[in-house]
Amino acid sequence: MFHGSMVALITPMREDGSLDKEAMYRLLDFHVENGTDAIVAMGTTGESATLDMDEHCQVLQDVVRYIAGRLPIIAGTGANCTREAIQLTQCAQAAGADAALLVTPYYNKPTQEGLYLHYKTIAEAVAIPQILYNVPGRTACDMLPATVERLSHIPNIVGIKEATGSLERGKEIMQRCGARLDLYSGDDATAMELILMGAKGDISVTANVAPRMMHEMCAAALAGDRARATEINEKLMLLHKNLFLEANPIPVKWAVHKMGLVSRGLRLPMTELSVSYHAAVLAAMDAADVPHK
After folding, report:
1. Percent share of the chain, pLDDT over 90
2. Domains of the chain (ranges, CATH numbers)
3. Where does the chain have alpha helices with state H?
4. What pLDDT, in 10s, does the model give residues 203-256?
5. Residues tagged active-site
6. Which of 236, 240, 268 is nearest to 252 (CA)?
7. How far apart are the first and last CA of the chain?
8. Distance CA 12, CA 253 (A)
9. pLDDT beyond 80 at 94
10. How far apart are alpha carbons 104 and 156 in whole angstroms?
11. For residue 102, what pLDDT is reported?
Protein backbone atom coordinates (compact mmCIF):
# COMPACT_ATOMS: atom_id res chain seq x y z
CA MET A 1 0.00 0.00 0.00
CA PHE A 2 2.87 2.39 0.86
CA HIS A 3 6.49 2.21 -0.22
CA GLY A 4 9.82 4.02 -0.23
CA SER A 5 11.04 6.75 2.09
CA MET A 6 8.29 7.77 4.51
CA VAL A 7 9.42 10.63 6.71
CA ALA A 8 8.67 10.39 10.43
CA LEU A 9 7.93 14.09 10.42
CA ILE A 10 9.02 16.41 13.20
CA THR A 11 6.36 18.79 14.57
CA PRO A 12 7.66 22.38 14.33
CA MET A 13 7.31 24.41 17.51
CA ARG A 14 8.27 27.92 18.51
CA GLU A 15 10.75 28.39 21.31
CA ASP A 16 7.88 28.71 23.81
CA GLY A 17 6.63 25.25 22.77
CA SER A 18 3.61 26.47 20.81
CA LEU A 19 2.86 24.78 17.49
CA ASP A 20 4.20 26.55 14.40
CA LYS A 21 1.74 25.93 11.58
CA GLU A 22 3.59 28.03 8.99
CA ALA A 23 6.83 26.13 9.59
CA MET A 24 4.86 22.89 9.22
CA TYR A 25 3.66 23.99 5.81
CA ARG A 26 7.25 24.83 4.79
CA LEU A 27 8.35 21.37 5.86
CA LEU A 28 5.56 19.70 3.92
CA ASP A 29 6.47 21.60 0.74
CA PHE A 30 10.13 20.70 1.32
CA HIS A 31 9.24 17.01 1.39
CA VAL A 32 7.03 17.17 -1.67
CA GLU A 33 9.82 18.93 -3.58
CA ASN A 34 12.50 16.48 -2.44
CA GLY A 35 10.85 13.19 -3.33
CA THR A 36 9.60 11.92 0.03
CA ASP A 37 7.17 9.07 -0.69
CA ALA A 38 4.79 9.52 2.25
CA ILE A 39 4.33 11.70 5.34
CA VAL A 40 4.06 10.09 8.78
CA ALA A 41 2.64 12.78 11.06
CA MET A 42 2.28 12.64 14.84
CA GLY A 43 4.55 9.69 15.48
CA THR A 44 7.36 9.47 18.04
CA THR A 45 9.50 11.91 16.05
CA GLY A 46 6.52 14.28 15.98
CA GLU A 47 6.49 14.46 19.80
CA SER A 48 2.99 13.01 19.88
CA ALA A 49 3.35 12.19 23.57
CA THR A 50 3.53 15.90 24.46
CA LEU A 51 0.47 17.06 22.48
CA ASP A 52 -3.02 16.90 23.90
CA MET A 53 -5.88 15.25 22.03
CA ASP A 54 -7.13 18.46 20.41
CA GLU A 55 -3.66 19.48 19.24
CA HIS A 56 -2.95 16.00 17.93
CA CYS A 57 -6.13 15.95 15.85
CA GLN A 58 -5.60 19.53 14.66
CA VAL A 59 -2.09 18.73 13.37
CA LEU A 60 -3.45 15.75 11.45
CA GLN A 61 -6.20 17.89 9.94
CA ASP A 62 -3.72 20.62 8.96
CA VAL A 63 -1.29 18.15 7.36
CA VAL A 64 -3.98 16.37 5.34
CA ARG A 65 -5.57 19.64 4.23
CA TYR A 66 -2.27 21.23 3.19
CA ILE A 67 -0.86 18.19 1.37
CA ALA A 68 -4.18 17.93 -0.51
CA GLY A 69 -3.45 14.52 -1.98
CA ARG A 70 0.11 15.24 -3.14
CA LEU A 71 1.50 12.49 -0.89
CA PRO A 72 -0.02 9.69 1.21
CA ILE A 73 -0.51 10.63 4.87
CA ILE A 74 0.01 8.09 7.65
CA ALA A 75 -1.23 9.35 11.01
CA GLY A 76 0.35 8.32 14.28
CA THR A 77 -2.56 7.36 16.54
CA GLY A 78 -1.08 4.96 19.06
CA ALA A 79 -1.62 5.24 22.82
CA ASN A 80 -1.21 3.09 25.90
CA CYS A 81 -4.96 3.28 26.46
CA THR A 82 -7.01 1.36 23.90
CA ARG A 83 -9.92 3.79 24.14
CA GLU A 84 -7.63 6.76 23.53
CA ALA A 85 -6.03 5.00 20.55
CA ILE A 86 -9.50 4.45 19.08
CA GLN A 87 -10.33 8.15 19.52
CA LEU A 88 -7.10 9.23 17.84
CA THR A 89 -7.61 6.75 15.02
CA GLN A 90 -11.13 8.09 14.52
CA CYS A 91 -9.62 11.60 14.30
CA ALA A 92 -7.21 10.38 11.63
CA GLN A 93 -9.99 8.80 9.63
CA ALA A 94 -12.16 11.93 9.90
CA ALA A 95 -9.23 14.11 8.82
CA GLY A 96 -8.79 12.02 5.66
CA ALA A 97 -5.50 10.28 6.47
CA ASP A 98 -4.65 7.29 4.28
CA ALA A 99 -3.65 5.05 7.20
CA ALA A 100 -2.93 5.05 10.92
CA LEU A 101 0.31 4.01 12.62
CA LEU A 102 -0.18 2.55 16.10
CA VAL A 103 2.71 2.11 18.49
CA THR A 104 2.53 -0.69 21.03
CA PRO A 105 1.15 0.45 24.40
CA TYR A 106 4.04 1.91 26.37
CA TYR A 107 4.59 1.62 30.13
CA ASN A 108 1.67 -0.80 30.65
CA LYS A 109 3.70 -3.88 29.60
CA PRO A 110 0.73 -5.86 28.23
CA THR A 111 0.94 -9.58 27.51
CA GLN A 112 1.00 -10.83 23.93
CA GLU A 113 -2.72 -11.60 24.26
CA GLY A 114 -3.27 -8.06 25.50
CA LEU A 115 -1.44 -6.71 22.46
CA TYR A 116 -3.51 -8.85 20.13
CA LEU A 117 -6.78 -7.70 21.69
CA HIS A 118 -5.64 -4.06 21.77
CA TYR A 119 -4.98 -3.97 18.03
CA LYS A 120 -7.96 -6.17 17.15
CA THR A 121 -10.29 -3.86 19.08
CA ILE A 122 -8.96 -0.73 17.33
CA ALA A 123 -9.11 -2.34 13.89
CA GLU A 124 -12.70 -3.42 14.44
CA ALA A 125 -13.69 0.03 15.74
CA VAL A 126 -12.16 2.11 12.93
CA ALA A 127 -12.10 0.96 9.31
CA ILE A 128 -9.03 2.97 8.23
CA PRO A 129 -5.97 0.89 7.15
CA GLN A 130 -3.70 0.38 10.15
CA ILE A 131 0.04 -0.19 10.53
CA LEU A 132 1.43 -1.82 13.67
CA TYR A 133 4.51 -0.23 15.23
CA ASN A 134 6.97 -2.20 17.35
CA VAL A 135 9.73 -0.22 19.07
CA PRO A 136 10.56 -1.98 22.36
CA GLY A 137 13.55 0.26 23.03
CA ARG A 138 11.11 3.09 23.76
CA THR A 139 7.99 1.28 24.96
CA ALA A 140 9.35 -1.57 27.10
CA CYS A 141 6.91 -3.74 25.13
CA ASP A 142 7.96 -6.15 22.39
CA MET A 143 5.31 -7.48 20.01
CA LEU A 144 6.54 -10.91 18.98
CA PRO A 145 6.29 -12.30 15.43
CA ALA A 146 3.65 -14.86 16.43
CA THR A 147 1.39 -12.02 17.59
CA VAL A 148 2.07 -10.07 14.40
CA GLU A 149 1.09 -13.16 12.42
CA ARG A 150 -2.23 -13.41 14.27
CA LEU A 151 -2.93 -9.73 13.61
CA SER A 152 -2.05 -10.04 9.92
CA HIS A 153 -5.30 -11.94 9.35
CA ILE A 154 -7.35 -8.84 10.28
CA PRO A 155 -8.23 -7.21 6.93
CA ASN A 156 -7.48 -3.56 7.72
CA ILE A 157 -4.18 -4.28 9.49
CA VAL A 158 -1.96 -3.80 6.45
CA GLY A 159 1.60 -3.39 7.70
CA ILE A 160 4.11 -3.19 10.52
CA LYS A 161 6.86 -0.72 11.29
CA GLU A 162 9.50 -2.92 12.89
CA ALA A 163 12.04 -0.80 14.77
CA THR A 164 14.10 -3.38 16.66
CA GLY A 165 16.88 -3.09 14.07
CA SER A 166 16.98 -6.89 13.89
CA LEU A 167 17.13 -8.26 10.36
CA GLU A 168 16.30 -11.71 11.70
CA ARG A 169 13.13 -10.33 13.26
CA GLY A 170 12.15 -8.74 9.97
CA LYS A 171 12.84 -11.95 8.07
CA GLU A 172 10.69 -13.97 10.46
CA ILE A 173 7.77 -11.56 10.16
CA MET A 174 7.92 -11.71 6.37
CA GLN A 175 8.05 -15.52 6.44
CA ARG A 176 5.10 -15.74 8.81
CA CYS A 177 2.88 -13.09 7.21
CA GLY A 178 3.75 -13.21 3.53
CA ALA A 179 1.68 -10.93 1.30
CA ARG A 180 -0.90 -10.29 4.03
CA LEU A 181 1.29 -7.67 5.72
CA ASP A 182 3.79 -5.11 4.40
CA LEU A 183 6.96 -4.70 6.45
CA TYR A 184 8.55 -1.28 6.96
CA SER A 185 11.84 -0.55 8.64
CA GLY A 186 11.77 1.73 11.65
CA ASP A 187 15.55 1.74 11.99
CA ASP A 188 17.44 3.86 9.46
CA ALA A 189 20.77 2.12 9.99
CA THR A 190 19.42 -1.28 8.87
CA ALA A 191 16.68 -0.08 6.52
CA MET A 192 18.59 -0.70 3.29
CA GLU A 193 19.26 -4.34 4.14
CA LEU A 194 15.69 -4.90 5.26
CA ILE A 195 14.31 -3.45 2.01
CA LEU A 196 16.67 -5.62 -0.03
CA MET A 197 15.25 -8.59 1.91
CA GLY A 198 11.69 -7.65 0.94
CA ALA A 199 10.51 -4.78 3.13
CA LYS A 200 8.49 -2.10 1.36
CA GLY A 201 10.25 0.96 2.71
CA ASP A 202 11.54 2.92 5.68
CA ILE A 203 9.65 5.15 8.12
CA SER A 204 12.62 7.40 8.55
CA VAL A 205 14.07 9.95 10.94
CA THR A 206 16.98 10.65 8.58
CA ALA A 207 14.50 11.67 5.85
CA ASN A 208 13.78 14.84 7.84
CA VAL A 209 17.32 16.00 7.04
CA ALA A 210 18.17 14.29 3.73
CA PRO A 211 14.84 13.50 2.04
CA ARG A 212 16.10 13.30 -1.54
CA MET A 213 18.90 10.91 -0.68
CA MET A 214 16.62 8.74 1.45
CA HIS A 215 14.12 8.55 -1.40
CA GLU A 216 16.86 7.57 -3.85
CA MET A 217 18.36 4.99 -1.48
CA CYS A 218 14.98 3.37 -0.82
CA ALA A 219 14.11 3.40 -4.53
CA ALA A 220 17.39 1.70 -5.40
CA ALA A 221 16.91 -0.93 -2.70
CA LEU A 222 13.32 -1.58 -3.80
CA ALA A 223 14.62 -2.09 -7.34
CA GLY A 224 17.18 -4.60 -6.05
CA ASP A 225 20.13 -2.37 -6.97
CA ARG A 226 22.41 -3.10 -4.02
CA ALA A 227 25.39 -1.22 -5.45
CA ARG A 228 23.50 2.06 -5.92
CA ALA A 229 21.65 1.74 -2.61
CA THR A 230 24.94 1.10 -0.78
CA GLU A 231 26.65 4.05 -2.46
CA ILE A 232 23.94 6.41 -1.20
CA ASN A 233 23.54 4.76 2.18
CA GLU A 234 27.21 5.08 3.01
CA LYS A 235 26.88 8.88 2.80
CA LEU A 236 23.88 8.71 5.11
CA MET A 237 25.35 6.40 7.73
CA LEU A 238 26.61 9.15 10.03
CA LEU A 239 23.15 10.70 10.02
CA HIS A 240 21.58 7.32 10.80
CA LYS A 241 23.89 7.11 13.80
CA ASN A 242 24.29 10.68 15.04
CA LEU A 243 20.62 11.62 14.89
CA PHE A 244 20.27 9.29 17.88
CA LEU A 245 23.09 10.64 20.05
CA GLU A 246 20.32 11.87 22.34
CA ALA A 247 16.71 10.75 22.44
CA ASN A 248 14.80 11.25 19.19
CA PRO A 249 13.68 13.88 18.15
CA ILE A 250 16.23 16.06 19.99
CA PRO A 251 19.08 15.76 17.43
CA VAL A 252 16.88 15.77 14.33
CA LYS A 253 14.98 18.90 15.38
CA TRP A 254 18.28 20.65 16.00
CA ALA A 255 19.53 19.56 12.57
CA VAL A 256 16.41 20.79 10.79
CA HIS A 257 16.76 24.08 12.68
CA LYS A 258 20.34 24.35 11.41
CA MET A 259 18.94 23.85 7.89
CA GLY A 260 16.87 27.01 8.45
CA LEU A 261 13.48 25.31 8.23
CA VAL A 262 12.22 25.49 11.82
CA SER A 263 12.96 27.22 15.10
CA ARG A 264 14.52 25.39 18.07
CA GLY A 265 11.29 24.63 19.90
CA LEU A 266 10.66 21.37 21.74
CA ARG A 267 8.36 20.57 24.65
CA LEU A 268 9.53 19.40 28.02
CA PRO A 269 10.66 16.87 29.01
CA MET A 270 12.62 17.10 25.73
CA THR A 271 15.42 19.69 25.78
CA GLU A 272 17.68 21.16 23.13
CA LEU A 273 20.62 19.10 21.86
CA SER A 274 23.60 19.17 24.22
CA VAL A 275 26.41 21.41 22.99
CA SER A 276 28.81 18.47 23.20
CA TYR A 277 26.94 16.80 20.32
CA HIS A 278 26.67 19.78 17.96
CA ALA A 279 29.88 19.03 16.07
CA ALA A 280 28.95 15.36 15.56
CA VAL A 281 25.53 16.20 14.10
CA LEU A 282 27.03 18.86 11.83
CA ALA A 283 29.67 16.36 10.68
CA ALA A 284 26.92 13.90 9.77
CA MET A 285 25.11 16.61 7.82
CA ASP A 286 28.33 17.46 5.99
CA ALA A 287 28.91 13.81 5.11
CA ALA A 288 25.49 13.77 3.44
CA ASP A 289 26.06 17.17 1.74
CA VAL A 290 23.20 18.76 3.70
CA PRO A 291 23.50 22.57 3.72
CA HIS A 292 23.33 24.22 7.13
CA LYS A 293 24.05 27.51 8.83
Report:
1. 100
2. 4-225 (3.20.20.70)
3. 21-33, 53-67, 82-95, 112-125, 136-139, 145-151, 167-177, 188-197, 211-222, 226-242, 250-258, 278-287
4. 999 999 999 999 999 999 999 999 999 999 999 999 999 999 999 999 999 999
5. 133, 161
6. 240
7. 38
8. 8
9. yes
10. 17
11. 98
